[in-house]
Amino acid sequence: xxxxxxxxxxxxxxxxxxxxxxxxxxxxxxxxxxxxxxxxxxxxxxxxxxxxxxxxxxxxxxxxxxxxxxxxxxxxxxxxxxxxxxxxxxxxxxxxxxxxxxxxxxxxxxxxxxxxxxxxxxxxxxxxxxxxxxxxxxxxxxxxxxxxxxxxxxxxxxxxxxxxxxxxxxxxxxxxxxxxxxxxxxxxxxxxxxxxxxxxxxxxxxxxxxxxxxxxxxxxxxxxxxxxxxxxxxxxxxxxxxxxxxxxxxxxxxxxxxxxxxxxxxxxxxxxxxxxxxxxxxxxxxxxxxxxxxxxxxxxxxxxxxxxxxxxxxxxxxxxxxxxxxxxxxxxxxxxxxxxxxxxxxxxxxxxxxxxxxxxxxxxxxxxxxxxxxxxxxxxxxxxxxxxxxxxxxxxxxxxxxxxxxxxxxxxxxxxxxxxxxxxxxxxxxxxxxxxxxxxxxxxxxxxxxxxxxxxxxxxxxxxxxxxxxxxxxxxxxxxxxxxxxxxxxxxxx
Length: 494
Known about the structure:
Blueprint: H1 2-11, E1 16-17, H2 20-27, E2 40-42, H3 47-60, E3 64-67, E4 88-91, E5 98-102, E6 107-110, H4 116-124, E7 128-130, H5 142-147, E8 165-172, E9 177-179, H6 189-194, H7 210-214, E10 222-233, E11 237-245, H8 248-260, E12 267-271, H9 272-279, H10 283-292, E13 296-304, H11 309-326, E14 334-335, E15 338-339, H12 340-347, E16 363-371, H13 376-389, E17 397-404, E18 409-418, H14 425-442, H15 454-459, H16 463-476
Parallel strand pairs: 2-4, 3-4
Antiparallel strand pairs: 1-2, 5-6, 6-10, 7-10, 8-9, 8-10, 11-13, 12-13, 12-17, 14-15, 16-18, 17-18
Helix pairs in contact: 1-3, 9-10
């Protein structure tokens, strides 16, 4: 009780919540991680309050689980570890300030509670646009999206895995406040602004890449209190095209070519179910649209900003048309059931409610990993074989292929939609994910974001990596209070 009084002093009584109804929201998510109820939820408003909470947790031996995005959650990373009791959830959703927009350097500094829906209009005022993930849910934190390395839909701006995340301010598990990248100094942030610096270099301080340590760490190292993120100029001219095909191989060849030529902006491949789920409002409309759509569609945009935007779009369109013809494809503004301009609108903003992955059946679990585009047909074939093994309908599998790092690799995602109210469907999907993911890993799938059962896949046979991570954990979170039970710091999936 005395411990809780100290917590209330830090953030105020109204921001320490232990009502059973509130705790239920943090006890479970859409994943198959075993539900565990936290002790309470605390909602800080500033970095100082976060630092106070972390120091309090060290003094009392209390585990902390940070969360920035609102529900629904899908991966189990914000569910307390199964062997941990008395967990306090640190909900950062009150920290939603857009601290600074730097038009000249195309950088925005934001707190972790800021969503894409809040960021887009703020950047538009400065003639900028965020680099978007694929139709993120309306409650999704921008900072969390990029901390978790969710892929952006414009691979031309993706130069390495950390993009578009730049610098961060973090309260490590030790209670120390630290600024990564060029934000580390010299001078305070305000002093850096006065001389024109914009916290636009993610690596550092010195030659150590501290920001990379925090990516995909699932909150096991510390709590981010702000981050800087790359932006791009708001296009003055934009044309979006749909490239349809009966087989995915030709679209992959086309994607490789246009990315090699540095043409276009948006470039992603969806199968009929994924595209229909994004574009249609409910289950019946999704099914009807899926049946009209071609099996595979590449969404491709050409955008012009800065000097001579129309001329840029014109020459890129002309060359893109020729490249498409060389593969027997065509750039179209309309395909059966859908218009390119409507797809462009849908992909330039967060998903409408309900979230697009939940519209068709009410439940969805993903299998996603990194590979190269040329290998994705083999993975698609394997997933279809697994669907037969688990008696899972092929028509209920969405596929999303997102080129990354200039097309040198890609995010490959399979969306397994199901009705959680139908007995047995959830268990079928659970087995599909756990057992099927291992078979995909055996084929070379790289699970770079190891949630749940993927932890053992990611670290299997690589104890040196796990040992290295534990050494870093001991440095930055010496009492292991930050989200214990995740990654190689224990297992939360049972």
